[in-house]
Each structure stands twice: as structure tokens, then as C-alpha cells.
């Protein structure tokens, strides 16, 4: 029986063959199905993408547009979603809590998992009644988002990623619809205003995919973990919960990061004062040897306090 090569050798051979699983199998003297399985394990462990070749065209497959990767074998990640930053002059309790944890716990990676920018005036929803307070301009929102993001960077200079949400994309979507001639003009893209953050549609770390949304509804975290075959951390639904799933491959987790906004803030007037099962908070991820441990959550206790790991923390 041929001895298995180490991961470094496998990766080298993979690149030398241009991502041809058949050729890797021939060189290593193993079955092609074993090559595919080994490749998947290495991608999950190292948070990398080993690009393959399309059997139909013989051209290299590349990572999907917008996919970001980060190799983190042992370390921590702080994830916050749906900040919907509102230019009121004050940060919400969850936003202050997020900054506090970044400063005190010093995570290796900080992720904003979508909808930092709300885009109230470029929304598809009605503007509400005339009696309501006037909505902030795009400029006002951008400045408020910049202040929030700058506070995070100042708290602790970790590696930073921003997985775009549907609200984040409102800025460019509106411009693309009414003024497509301004494509690529500096300032018309959201990333132009946040140069210290790497933006994309998803972030792959170890055995985990972090992205703003996939499945919807009450059981979204469960379905995300079940159908993706990986642990998946999402936002969008504001529910703040962890749902484990276990099968023959082991444990994985569906995580909803909740919201860093006030669930009853003015940006959500389209809910029409209906009850909502939303919770303010965020997620803390810990990796050991490339595997995700049981995710932890922090949540808002009252207007000045968050709860985390059995403690009440004033922020």
C-alpha cells in the first residue's frame, strides 16, 4: 500500500498538474476519488481553494467571484452582522459591545457579516408616513458607517473582512440602475469608502463559510449547515442562535449572528410595528487545528450591558 504524501507535497503536485485530479492520482499512485477527498480535507483545514480543471473545457476552475479565504489553524474570530448603522450620533449597545470585545479579547480576525450600511433612501421599501422623522442621506449614512468601522480598527488592528449584505449593495445597485455611465468612477463603489476592510461575498476559514445569507426562515441556520456540508455563519435574519448538526462526517454548526442594530430602531419602520423575534448581539468563533469549536454568542442584556460567557459586561 502506497504511503500517503504530506499536505505540502500534495498541494505542490496539485499546482504542478494545473488542478487535474486524474493526473495527481496518476503521479501519486492512488485512486482519483481519494484525490478529491484529500483535496476537500486540505481546503477545509487550511481555508484555501485548490483550483481544479473543468473536464469539459480543460480550463482551470477558479474561485467564485467574491470568495475570500483566510488560513487560521488556531485562533479566534469575532463576527458581527446587520449593524444598519444609523447616523444618530450614538452607537447601539451591541455595537459598543462588539468594539469592547475586539479591544479586550483581541481576536485574530474581525468580520462584519453584511448590512453595515442600511441605505434607507435607496431602499425598495416605501418611505413611511410624513409624520416620521426624515431619513438620513446616503452621505450621512456613509459617514456614520465610517465612524463605526474606524472605532473597530482603533479598538484592535486584527485582520478585517466585510461580507457584503443585500443592504450594502443598495448603493451600487441604485447607481447601476440610474447612472450606469459612472461605473468604476471612484466613490461609486462601497469599497472605495472603506479601504481598510477587504470586501467580498463570503469568507472561508477552515471548515467554515461566513456569508451574509443563504436559506431564509425559522430553520435557516439548520438548513445552512445541513445542505452546505460545512459550518456556516450568516446574518440577515437577526435571530442570534447556534444550531448544531451531526452526521457521519462529524459536527458542524449553523450560526445566525443576530443584529448589531437596535431591533426596534427607525431603520426598521417597514416592519410596521409588528412583533419580531430579533436579538441584538454577535458571535465568537474559536479554531483548534483548523476545526471550529462550538460557537459562542454575546447578546444585549440592557441598554448599557451585554452578556457573554456567564458574565454581565458594561459597555
Q: Indicate the proportion of strand residues.
A: 15-25%
Overall structural domain count: 2
SS-derived structural category: alpha/beta
CATH superfamily of the largest domain, please? Metallo-dependent phosphatases
**Largest sheet geometry:** 9 strands, mixed
Mean model confidence by pLDDT: 90
What would you call the shape? globular
Which sequence of SSEs, written as H and E, runs from N to C? HHHEEHEHEHEEEHEEEEEEEE
Number of separate strands: 15
Low-confidence stretches at least 5 residues in length (pLDDT < 50)? Answer: none
CATH architecture of the largest domain: 4-Layer Sandwich
Helix content: 25-40%
Cα radius of gyration in angstroms: 21 Å
Number of helices: 7
Top CATH class of the largest domain: Alpha Beta
Which fold name fills CATH's third level, the topology of the largest domain?
Purple Acid Phosphatase, chain A, domain 2
Q: What is the distance, rounded to the nearest whole angstrom, between the alpha carbons of the first and last residues?
A: 60 Å
Structure description:
This protein is of the alpha/beta class and 315 residues long. It has 2 domains: 7-62; 68-314, Purple Acid Phosphatase, chain A, domain 2 (4-Layer Sandwich), CATH 3.60.21. The protein has 7 helices and 15 strands. Strand 7 (208-211), helix 7 and strand 8 (231-234) form a beta-alpha-beta unit. The radius of gyration is 21 Å and the shape is globular. It starts with 6 loop residues before the first helix and ends with a strand.
